[in-house]
């Protein structure tokens, strides 16, 4: 064990020197780099095995495919950071897309307010999740498992087996799904925007930092006077809003919307978040990691189609990637915790 | 009185089952028909087996969402072995062994490596499903040789073998938890893993056994699947884990671990089965069924808490802000 | 091929009528009041809703007690539960689209043991688990229809790729196999070639789109994506439109006209195919009613008279070919209101 | 010391504050004043209620009764943030930082400077740097707390407690994890703050530190206020007497039985950074006490012997056989058991009945083939219940018991396994005096009659003197003294425990 001489100035040694003494911080950095390395390895593997893989066009295509998952993963990140999770994300997406486009299809006057309505719906659904988890103290897995069914049930009830067809969508939403801005699909920019916005909120606002604080050390959060109920409520509401936006974009992209839209996507979203290095224990990870996680999943899907590999292997590879990701998380977590909780008992004089 | 308090959740379930029975029989005149009750019960055997498998895992404070995929591996493997004419007993043992192996994989990752169970089993959920498809190939298989179907299709007198299997497994689970050291360790580990370790219990071993049991029972469910449906495909039981978790939680098993009983799970299965059967018999649209099950799940946990909060508001606030899990204590002491 | 089917049914009308009526003396041709349940794969899909309308129409025409049952979850166990719970309600017949034809077979057999007639439509169950299968299109005809649609989109032919719902959907698998066979062997389709590996999208629109894009990337000279899934085909076309590749790549296959009307109208697609699901549902329900009344017994050669919807002859293994493919093009798309 | 504001109300007044946790009375009517510009030491044995008082003053938990006033104004803080707004801050005993956040964020959480909806990062960092500079500490405020050393983290906590209008600063055992040079740094900061008029409450177990710093000393004992006195008027001996003074005098019962063979022999036991070169033996029938300040590493030694630690070096012999402790299960099977100090978290499973708790470690030997012998189990529990006179029925939940009875359950579950070596960590911590005496009798009975070897870790001097045959005094991970109890006094033990051990120190 080393003793830092307190009188010395801030460490100014080489890059590695500096990380040598701060293993926890290093571990977290490595964890994020790890996702990128994993993505890089995937890219290299596919580039070697699938000649068509490394083209600009294919890159664009992968980004476009991952855009909606990125947004949904950004919302999920908010919740996972607090040490909870949201299994109802697919249902929120489906419900929002269906209801919003159905309403705007029938009442064209509503068309300009599509986004606003979606945000409202998402906020309400997320708020309900938040109340269940925070005030009613229902473990998040149970609460959102319940709302997964309830929200999905509600949308099928509402839809009554009808479909919203692409013609009913507001023209500007349809245009958006086709738009290309600066050589990339508008969706990619929007996803980048949402991720950046969520990232900004998480990094730069007091609320965002309290999400991390709560997940990082709930007891300390209490000592610091943070209200865990309010933070959790905020996280779920935010996640609901972001999921609603994802749903809206998914609906506009798909065109023909039925009440099943987005079902089952929660597992993909969780996978993206976990692979992206957002710790399932809460408190660590970034929304950018989650976005990279989404790209990783899209890359796997793309590469395997390029390689003409059977669907089954996709399931296997994705599963292995998740397990590997949490394995790395566990090691990182140990490092982080050991750095702050170890109490030095003996004197070690330099 | 003490017994009544100890089994208050089960009593509540029994009352609810009674109400559901009345409701269902009013909803549909066909409900109280013996054959119908039997065949409906048969339908829930597969979910019940997975629920009893999930029970120890949740009791230990963990979760396993990969069980339906394990079932699929079991069913397609069993079908494959049946196709190859492997002796029935050998085929069954092989499937159970593979179920155990898959459970062991989960258990090792969760208990030995200390990884979060939700994420681990999210991974193996996909991986095991992939294995099931690899075994099954593109097409499913149809099994018609009766000797392979006894567990799912056979009958002893008027009672289907599969129901007997479920009841035996349920009784076994109840006995395992109530009368064996494993059961005692399970509650201990789920209630307080640190104290359990300090008491010389192998927390890792206990959790691993839980996962292995879950795997074995899912494998058994796969065998029954083949018996009941005389076929197997890679996508068998896809999506059924939500129902299984609902049954376990509704059965009064705390998702945080440490409490819950097999009887509760059985009663929850009966309750869910009664409601769903009633609604299906009345041809209630599927959407309402989804809604009702979701609401039931949340209500089962949310309502007691809500009552507690309301009661707490009425009393002068004696606050325990310590942020510990002793938040539940006041209610318990209040009741006594 | 359309004509073939009608000729065949015309021929057999005379022979079939006699046994049909003599076989069931006690009910002598009346299905009035018969209780018929229609169970789609799962509820909430527009295609099945259209078929339901046909069933309801038949119910009205024949004075049936028609009910539509099912779960909104696309899971075999859910359909099994639905069917199991239909039996005690003693319907006279079940009209079923099988989500897993093998797995629901025992339930259907139970129904038949209880004296319930079983008719499958859209997706068949095990042959011995039902009385009749009203097949919308024979697998060969379905394959040809989709290839024809592909050629309408891309007259010069080119590379095609397939998206199916799942490896376990037998009709999709059969369609693909026939399409491959025809491309390999039939000179009419020799301008086409295909990507061997089939992709699976599980009737999920979002996934279909991702796969479509990946297929385009994987195969630069890809011309047509073909899918038998009424979800995947329009979704894939939408993905192509979104990607700004209309006119370079096309998606086609089976789709409801309502879901592809815009593509056809704006010229991004020349043709999609299907049949009339409402009429299919109508025919299936009529067939069920006639089984109930004893007008037919599902023997080979018997004729189902569905009034304006036509007459159909029972083929081998109780299979009834509806076989009326529809090709939606710019010329006729306005005529379809489903 | 000039107190210009003497006429005004005291900076902080604690008046009749009480607090119970269930059956435990952590504080009973505690009252004392703290003046502006003084360092006020708050001392008392473990469990005296010091930390509980800190929590009440800073709004972490409400007291049951009593008033805390600042500058004559009664306060009602709902959260620590309210307290901070009123200029009252604390550095709590257990580390409370967010490992994943940066140093600056940890310092400023809850009171981020804002620019619009955003945190003003520049301002935040500047402020954090200023506060760190105030405690004479310079580190990169952007780095993550997870990367800090323990001492650095401690200074971050202190910096966090500071603010421009700081009126009262409470430090709960701030130096327990610091080296002397680091501690010295902290003393300077505190003195400087005092000189600018802040009232400081300093909680510590270290004599020389209290002597060097405190202007005034308040002693708590068993949740009650004993004395508040200027430091100069309170000698070390007197202070210790006030801390340990008991209403019931524990009797020292002389041992009459001879000692048996060595049942536990430890040589050269080391865990890097925690304890070093620990050597001792325990004989059958002997009670050996291990004394020392909190944090001396006593629990760690016992835990290492029980197979709970990895990376332990050295040799352990049980009844002459060398063993390598790997797991509690293995050690319990070998007859060596450990009673953890953290009773509720580690010693018992409070949601299970008494009988289950007692039988838990013995289940395997009781039943056959994994089946629990419930009759045997109940018999076992009943025997222990009556032997240790545990209140209540064996079917009762342990959560319904008082602390003392919970502790008896925790002891009973090991006794049921008939071990030969007992490691008891603070066996009477936080239990009432009557039960305490009972536990002492039980220990004597086990050693003298049943010939067990007992290692008792205790911070209660009188208990050490009354019960043990021999005392090992630990300081900072090393045994500094090994005394026959007959020749030891409280003062000699405390003196040894508070001295700074060096490797050369041998008693
Ligand atoms: N949250 C709690 N629940 C139950 N009992 C508690 C709680 N917090 C403290 N106690 C009990 O209150 C008493 C006083 O504890 P406290 O931590 O205030 O003592 P202390 O003087 O700070 O001791 P130390 O010197 O060991 O830090 C102890 O008996 C302790 O066990
Ligand atoms: N590695 C560690 N990680 C976290 N906390 C630790 C660690 N080592 C010691 N502690 C904590 O430091 C405190 C004091 O350490 P320890 O228990 O070893 O001292 P002790 O001499 O046994 O004191 P006592 O038993 O009188 O409290 C304990 O509360 C313990 O939980
Ligand atoms: Mg304290
Ligand atoms: Mg200790």
From TrEMBL, chain A:
<dbReference type="Pfam" id="PF02653">
    <property type="entry name" value="BPD_transp_2"/>
</dbReference>
<keyword id="KW-0813">Transport</keyword>
<feature type="transmembrane region" description="Helical">
    <location>
        <begin position="62"/>
        <end position="81"/>
    </location>
</feature>
<keyword id="KW-0812">Transmembrane</keyword>
<comment type="subunit">
    <text>The complex is composed of two ATP-binding proteins (LsrA), two transmembrane proteins (LsrC and LsrD) and a solute-binding protein (LsrB).</text>
</comment>
<feature type="transmembrane region" description="Helical">
    <location>
        <begin position="231"/>
        <end position="255"/>
    </location>
</feature>
<keyword id="KW-1003">Cell membrane</keyword>
<keyword id="KW-0472">Membrane</keyword>
<keyword id="KW-1133">Transmembrane helix</keyword>
<dbReference type="GO" id="GO:0022857">
    <property type="term" value="F:transmembrane transporter activity"/>
</dbReference>
<feature type="transmembrane region" description="Helical">
    <location>
        <begin position="112"/>
        <end position="132"/>
    </location>
</feature>
<comment type="function">
    <text>Part of the ABC transporter complex LsrABCD involved in autoinducer 2 (AI-2) import. Probably responsible for the translocation of the substrate across the membrane.</text>
</comment>
<dbReference type="InterPro" id="IPR001851">
    <property type="entry name" value="ABC_transp_permease"/>
</dbReference>
<feature type="transmembrane region" description="Helical">
    <location>
        <begin position="180"/>
        <end position="202"/>
    </location>
</feature>
<keyword id="KW-0997">Cell inner membrane</keyword>
TrEMBL record, chain B:
<feature type="transmembrane region" description="Helical">
    <location>
        <begin position="65"/>
        <end position="82"/>
    </location>
</feature>
<dbReference type="Pfam" id="PF02653">
    <property type="entry name" value="BPD_transp_2"/>
</dbReference>
<dbReference type="GO" id="GO:0022857">
    <property type="term" value="F:transmembrane transporter activity"/>
</dbReference>
<feature type="transmembrane region" description="Helical">
    <location>
        <begin position="156"/>
        <end position="179"/>
    </location>
</feature>
<feature type="transmembrane region" description="Helical">
    <location>
        <begin position="118"/>
        <end position="136"/>
    </location>
</feature>
<feature type="transmembrane region" description="Helical">
    <location>
        <begin position="88"/>
        <end position="111"/>
    </location>
</feature>
<keyword id="KW-0472">Membrane</keyword>
<feature type="transmembrane region" description="Helical">
    <location>
        <begin position="239"/>
        <end position="255"/>
    </location>
</feature>
<dbReference type="GO" id="GO:0005886">
    <property type="term" value="C:plasma membrane"/>
</dbReference>
<keyword id="KW-1133">Transmembrane helix</keyword>
<keyword id="KW-0997">Cell inner membrane</keyword>
<feature type="transmembrane region" description="Helical">
    <location>
        <begin position="288"/>
        <end position="307"/>
    </location>
</feature>
<feature type="transmembrane region" description="Helical">
    <location>
        <begin position="37"/>
        <end position="58"/>
    </location>
</feature>
<feature type="transmembrane region" description="Helical">
    <location>
        <begin position="262"/>
        <end position="282"/>
    </location>
</feature>
<keyword id="KW-1003">Cell membrane</keyword>
From TrEMBL, chain D:
<keyword id="KW-1003">Cell membrane</keyword>
<keyword id="KW-0762">Sugar transport</keyword>
<dbReference type="InterPro" id="IPR003439">
    <property type="entry name" value="ABC_transporter-like_ATP-bd"/>
</dbReference>
<dbReference type="GO" id="GO:0005524">
    <property type="term" value="F:ATP binding"/>
</dbReference>
<dbReference type="InterPro" id="IPR003593">
    <property type="entry name" value="AAA+_ATPase"/>
</dbReference>
<dbReference type="GO" id="GO:0016887">
    <property type="term" value="F:ATP hydrolysis activity"/>
</dbReference>
<dbReference type="InterPro" id="IPR017871">
    <property type="entry name" value="ABC_transporter-like_CS"/>
</dbReference>
<keyword id="KW-0067">ATP-binding</keyword>
<keyword id="KW-1278">Translocase</keyword>
<dbReference type="InterPro" id="IPR050107">
    <property type="entry name" value="ABC_carbohydrate_import_ATPase"/>
</dbReference>
<feature type="domain" description="ABC transporter">
    <location>
        <begin position="12"/>
        <end position="247"/>
    </location>
</feature>
<keyword id="KW-0472">Membrane</keyword>
<keyword id="KW-0547">Nucleotide-binding</keyword>
<feature type="domain" description="ABC transporter">
    <location>
        <begin position="248"/>
        <end position="501"/>
    </location>
</feature>
<protein>
    <submittedName>
        <fullName>Putative ABC transporter ATP-binding protein</fullName>
    </submittedName>
</protein>
